[in-house]
Amino acid sequence: MTAAGSVADGVPAHDVAHRMAEAAGAWLDGLDAEQRRIAVGAAPGDDPSDAERRRWFYTPTDHGGLTFHAQQPAQQRAAMRLVATGLSTPGYVTVATIIGLENVLDQVEGFVTRFDRERGRDPGLYYLRVFGEPGGSGVWGWRFGGHHVSLNNLVVDGALVATTPCFLGADPATSPLLGGAVNRPLARVEDLARDLVRSLPPELATRAVLLPKAPPDLVTANRTVVSPGDRVVPLAGIWRDERFPDAGEQAKLQALSDAIDEAAGYEDADHAAVEYTAEPRGVPASELDAEQRGMLRALLGTYLERVPPEVSPVRRYDDEAALDAVHVAWAGPTTPGAPHYYRVQGPRLLVEWDNTQRGANHAHSVWRDPGSDFGLDVLARHRAAHHG
Q1: How many beta carbons lie within 10 A of that of residue 114, not counting itself?
Q2: Is it the case that residue 10 has pLDDT exceeding 70?
């Protein structure tokens, strides 16, 4: 990778793309005609035909594609084999754990949540779709998503060129295991950032902490393109359909959305203080000491090492100048267990974390490349080269 989220045209990018194509082809070959109709989308392109591939969600809504429910066990295994090609081993374990948390969340809520379907918290409602024809020198990609998971991959000329947006969440973020152990799938994603901010001397901490209270969710939400001025989108707005057919269920969702916003207590000035800006807010790594820079590199690894090691851009930040340009910003208390938000931003890099909902036991994290999410810049260059 030459930059976070954008992959160089090298051997590793081709090797990973080859594994993806092989797994995608095997999965599609095992589907019947009706399943394939749902599982295959339009080939990626630099035009409106690519609109569906660019839609992504992290709520328990229809993410688009073939669900586990619609597949037989062997097909489900083939689907997970494809998912695994886009992840490191720790990334795959984390995704599998997040899917399993749907059963835990259902129990937490009393097995009653329904939304617009028979079961609202459902580990069978994860969606896989392939866009275009896998393999060869053409343009193709795939998307896997469901509640708290969104993986987006694009292959151009036989090389993996984009792996963002990449979203992982956890609800509950913390839950008990036998013997006093604790299940925290995203523990290091949270703790490393807090430890870093708490380690700052007062003059840097004052600049790093944008506000004493956290926004109710990720600031950039599930937008296709990140733009200056972006602000939090209320929960009810992060669903495929504008409204549920069932008015009662829609009212429940709206009430939940309103309660989340009310708990945050954000006014217009607060939103302005944390809105997305092209110029990063917070403290640059150039002002951190060696130990803090080490913590920041480790934190970046919890995002950039979600993908296969051959294509992870994490090594980019071994370069001191590249790390210098990365900024860290925080909102909310730094006390463990308190609602909080952070952002890490630099050239071709944006990561966001929010753990505020359900008493700060409901975490969201996303890795984005504002310049090349979904490989949009690569597709534009590809079209100019081949169709200009």
Answers
A1: 14
A2: no
